[in-house]
Structures are given as C-alpha cells and as structure tokens.
C-alpha cells in the first residue's frame, strides 16, 4: 500500500541527512521510524493494560509496603 507523507522542509532535510549518514534511502529510514514507533507504543500499551488489570489485585499489599 502506498501513502503520501507530507513533511516540512526542515523535516525533509533532517530525514535526508539521516539517510545519507546511514547510507540508506530516505524511504528506508522513514519506514524504520514507523516500525519503531509502532513497536514502542505497542509495548507501552501492553504494560498499561497489565498494570490496569494487575495493580488492583495487589493494591492492599502495595499500600502496606509503602508504610
């Protein structure tokens, strides 16, 4: 699937610079950035869900430990 990504001139130049430094295409760098973003947010969402589900179970014990 193709998408169009509109970047500012500053963003485009930063992407071009990064791609040149890594000897990669701008597309490769942008695609990696999207994958990294999705992966990091998926982990954060999972952690939030686990904490929301498990923390109440141990709330009393954690409160006692905090005293």
Give a verbal description of the structure.
There is one protein chain. The chain is an all-alpha fold and 67 residues long. The protein has one domain. Helices cover 73% and strands 0% of the residues. The protein has three helices and no strands. The radius of gyration is 20 Å and the shape is elongated. The mean pLDDT is 90.
What are the main properties of this structure?
0% strand, 3 helices, single chain, mainly alpha
Task: Give a short synopsis of this structure.
With 67 residues, the protein is an all-alpha fold. Helix content is 73%, strand content 0%.
What summary fits the major beta sheet?
none
Number of helices: 3
Order of helices and strands: HHH
Mean pLDDT: 90
Q: Which spans of ≥5 residues are poorly predicted at pLDDT below 50? A: none
Q: Please state the structural category.
A: mainly alpha
Oligomer description: single chain
Count of beta strands: 0
Helix content: over 70%
Strand percentage lies at under 5%
Task: Evaluate the radius of gyration.
Answer: 20 Å
- The total number of structural domains is 1
The general outline is elongated
Amino- and carboxy-terminal Cα gap: 55 Å
């Amino acid at each position: 699937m193709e998408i169009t990504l509109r970047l500012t001139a500053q963003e485009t130049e930063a992407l071009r610079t990064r791609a040149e430094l890594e000897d990669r295409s701008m597309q490769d760098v942008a695609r990696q950035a999207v994958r990294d973003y999705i992966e990091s947010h998926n982990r954060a969402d999972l952690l939030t869900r686990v904490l929301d589900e498990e923390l109440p179970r141990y709330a009393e014990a954690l409160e006692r430990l905090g005293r």
